[in-house]
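Recap quiz, item 2
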Amino acid sequence: MKLAGKKRIWADYQKEIPQDNYFYVRSCIRQNFFPASEVTFLRILRQELGKDIYEHIHHTTCSGIGYHSDVIPLETTMTVVARQFALMTEAGYENYACSCITSFGLYSEILETWKHFPEVLEKVRRDLKAATGREFEVPKHLAHASDIIYKMRHEIASRARYKLVNRYTGQPLRVVEHIGCHYSKMFPSKGVGGAEYPYVLAGMVEAWGGEVVDYPERRHCCGFGFRQYLVQANRGYSVANTQKKFESMAPFKPDMIITNCPGCPYFLDRWQYVIAEMEGKTYGENGFGIPVFTYEEVAGLVLGYDPWDLGLQVHQTAVEPILDKMGVAYNPEKKYLGKDGQNLGHPETPAYSKVY
Amino acid sequence: MATDGQKKVVVIGGGIAGMEAAAQLARMGYDTTIVEKQARTGGNVANWDHLFPEGRLAGEVVQQLYQKLSPVRIITGSSVKKADMLEGQYILTLADGSVLTTDALVVSTGFRTFDAHRKEEYGYGIYDRVITSADLEGMLNEHQPLFPGRHKGPRRVAFIHCVGSRDEKVGNRYCSKACCAMAVKQASKVKELYPDAEVYCFYMDLRMFDRRYEQMYLDAQAKSGVNFIRGRLSEASEDLQGRLVIKAEDTLMSKPLKMTVDMLVLMVGMEPASGARSVAEMLKIPVGHDGFFNATNELLEANCSGTPGVFLAGTCTGPKTIPETIADARAAATAADAYLRKKS
Amino acid sequence: MFRERFSYDPLVLPFLLGLIFIVTYLALGAIRMIKNLPAEDKIRLGKSFFSKQILLSIREIFNECLLHLRIFKKNPVLGYMHMSIALGWFMMIVLAHVEVKLYAPSRFNLPYYPIFFRYFVRETQETLDGAVFFFLMDFFLLMVLSGVGIAMYKRFNSKATGLRRTTRLKWNDRIALYALWSIFPLRLLAESFTSGISGGSFLTRGFGMVFETFVSNDLHVRPTWWAYSLALGTFFFTLPFSRFMHIPTEMLLILFRNAGIKHRTTGTGIAQTEIYSCSRCGICIDACQMVSAARLENKATVYFIRELREGGRHNAWDMASACLMCRRCVEACPVKIESTLIRSALRQDWKMLRREPLSFLPVNHTGPARVIYFAGCMSHLTPGIEQSMVRIFEKTGTDFTFMDREGGICCGRPMMLAGETRAARELIDRNKKIILHSGADTLVTSCPICYRVFAEEYQLPLKVQHHSQFILQMMEQGKISPEFREGTRVVYHDPCELGRNSGIYEEPRKVIAAMARIEPVAEEREMGLCCGGHVGSISLTHHQRRRIAVQACNILLAPSPDAIVTACPLCKKTLMDATAEVPVVDIAQMVDNPELLRKHPNPVLQ
Amino acid sequence: MAVQFGYSINKSNTIDMDTAPRAMESYLLLHEPSFARCIGCGCCTATCSSGVFTQLNLRQIQLRIRRGETQGLLPEIQKCMLCGKCQMVCPRGVSTRNVVLSIQRALQLLS
């Protein structure tokens, strides 16, 4: 491996990420999967970094899930997206920041389409006007939320309480970075570091003291694949893809996985449980799985936020081994307590997956 | 050297096309000068080890061409920066400020190999054991071991055809013509040097068009034991041992295929030489979308640029094999001769 | 009555021991071979001893084992060589015994006595009464010696005896051969040296007198008789391990054959007898096109059989799988060893994996019609033949149905040739159902490979015809009458399966002769050439096959014909691929469209 | 299994050349060297007499052996009637009949 070669590519794929004043849109499914991640993002930007970041109450789905599941045509999707842009325009923002990778990919696709086919843009403007009476401006910048954390990675590092370092050995933690397919595979130039060797998460890992693991199936999809998961009969295909990744990364003995997509952490996390239950196979140390995090969670951990405030208790693959390795203080007693201190109940103990 | 009344020809580019054209023009009695950007003549061919189909040594072939250049003036390490037409003559200003006048020009700017970095997914420049066909020629030429200090046991090598050719993604729709035969040649060579090695060629189509090439292909299969897999490489990655895991579809099996190899050779295609565009602008030579020069009539006037007195030779008009390049260079010299005779 | 010098001498021991050994060995061997016969064949053999078959056998044994008439027919020099040694030696033995019976009846029961008679007795008035014996013994000794002389010369210069190649011998054969060669010169020496004492005739007496002029004969008597006895002993001891085993075995083989014992699939019984009957004369080497064209000398039948005899099953399998099964070697073989049947048997011996029934093959009925036409797989690669046949059927108003128009089940012969008898049987059963269901009274096929299996294995209650036979029949009935093309000269290529292996030589020739002049070819009819395409071979490479095809073409084209006519789709296609000089036309196409006989108009190809 | 998921993990259909069994390929290359000459043109399959009735595909069988995908080969290869048409049409001169027979032998020896 020649790092210089990667740096050369990273240098080729740099995008302009705005410094401040973001119009933030949430993901549909993250609310359910890892609900604390988006909250953490806002907390970091507003409280740690003092940025102006605005959310609109009337924001809806971008309809990407429908689009990628072949149930909504692109023109409809475009009009829905145009409405989000109208909300941004009405709120006086120009920098559009989204939480969801699929949304990001879809926005990139739509913006690129409009650039090459202005007549489509005009039609969408007419359609939106006719349907809602709204008008919109095309965002000046489109950023994925991970782009913003990437941009702020050194500032975060400067405030870090913990580093991605194994406190027992002093060695950097070995981190697998998994990029959502829709981040840059379609438009390499829209992602930090391009499509083949994306740097957006690798940059965070490096800044926070970790070591990135490059393994053969790095580029492979997490297995979500929309239709492949949505239909129960197809789930064997979904989990097979996840398994392929784990089989490929396991020899590298990674400590953790960091992701920047709503679906990926969910599937990399849950499918480890399913593989363990079906085949009795686990991929981490001591019979545990490999803990999977969103970049917001990792940022929160680095900044010293309480793991339970980061929502790490909803992870199916136990996160405690990595918390211990990093030396993150946590109270096991409080793991399943709600915000108001009420006991939320303890999940059932699985047969094979090892949990705390 | 020039005698009075002797007409002058300048050849831009001293690769094998330029060398052959210059030698022919000098033989016809013209005062001929080669302007070569690099420090030596021979162009890309001088970088090769041996040449298909019969395995002649590239160095010897270039040397044979060079031996015919004694009456030719060779300016190396320089390039034409400016060209002005004055009374039927061209006045060329070179990089060092010197000026040449000439009655005709043969443009033989040739090709450069595709920059394999641009196929990022193949990991050239990132993974240690990914090399290009040009690199392999260099290694063979210098008798470098292909698998230095690696683990024992049989080694595996994969040759990837069409890297930078027939690929809209890098803007090269055309076939580079010589790489299929070159891959088969190199694959056979690797088997000859390392009989235990497993050698694979990943091809899209095998374009073995010459009467000798199919025999090369057959020998590679039947005698050397080279394996052929129809499918284009999708991506390469490194495993824990630093070997390369490559993925492709075996299209004849309709199944994805992966294998771990010790060396990945990217058969880089031909692109117009880096200075070709400026020469084209200077001399008003029409250029195709792919950057290669367009002759006035690709069938019957394949060496005519459309600009009076400017003739095209070799791979500046598109990928060619060596014999085609030599034939083309001679044709360009003949066309220039016809022009100069008519002019006088 | 006569003056006996000795009645015993240790010098008879090598001979005597050898004789005891060989007689025991042969007796046991014969018993083993007979034991190996299947039960019904044993009964057949037993019955044959009490019928006129035994007389036939005796005659054949006399003709072939002594006179070697078949070799004579093939090659008179070789024939003489074999006859002189075999008959000469036989006569010497017989005469010696007669002599002993006449002059020393009391010694007749000593088995060595007749052989060393000349050594034991002294010439007397009484023995001189039998001067004719002296003459005859010398005469036959000379005869044998002339044969041995030819044999020696042949070893060093095979072409002189009409053989391009002679068998490469192994050490065991060489010892036996040199022992055999030395027997008769030694006998001559020994007798010459004793001729002064025991008598002799023109040869021995003559030599004895010459020798006497410069050596002392007496001193040489014992050493030469010792040497003679040793040569005999050596020969007897090495015989079972050498090619000369054919001498006794062939007699057994003749008995077996005349008893009607047929080849079975097991590779034992008669096959084993045949293997031992091979004299390694090497006539088959020249007949084999794998040798002459594809330069695969070691694949020749003589070596294949030797390999089998010496237990090299693996190599033998290799040799068996290469063979095209054209049967030219069988045709050439003086012993008529059915080596292709032995090869077939060996191919079957390679047990294939369990085979699932070929139930996926449908039985697609066709007809009813009077004639059922089976083009054959290979004819689908030469659609011109099929089209021509269809037109001929239509033109002759034949009520026919085309059994495999849309592709059919293979006739089964290729399977059989590969040793897959059971699977072949399945194919046969399916096709048979279709054929019988059609209600036809005649089955016509375009492919001689199919023809042979239809005729030999299907046991169909209807007439099986190759299309050349059908066409001839139509011509004879006046339903088609092709015009004779004045000036057109063609050659006819006998397909192996149609000619040599099915005996159909004349019908195609008659059809062709009605349309063009047939030029004779150097090798035709029984010794017709194989085109090299035969499915009989399993392992022959494309290049080796092509060499055979080119060889066949060269011989066929020697008379500069306008076209090569053949009667087999496989031959046609193979020869076509090997020559561009003249058109290669099937007989059916020729009848349907005589224009095809015109030489290629393309001068480049000529 | 503790939990009933209603699905199971799909097996990969990727050809993994690192683990593919190559014994049969080696056997064929040794015993019928013309096997190496195949260019996958498919003439054999197109002309196949058995192909009229079955899915017998010699081109693919050849490839399967080269990629170690030899499971279930026996019933496939036994669909061949050995008629020899494929051998007649093969542009590369592969002795296809011996390929078929050698595959059967290899299956026997390697089983």
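The interface with chain D takes residues 321, 350-353, 355-356, 358, 360-362, 377-378, 380-381, 406-410, 414-415, 418, 420, 423, 427, 533, 535, 538-543, 546, 570, 573-574 of chain C (CB under 8 Å).
DSSP finds 28 helices and ten strands in chain C.
End of item.
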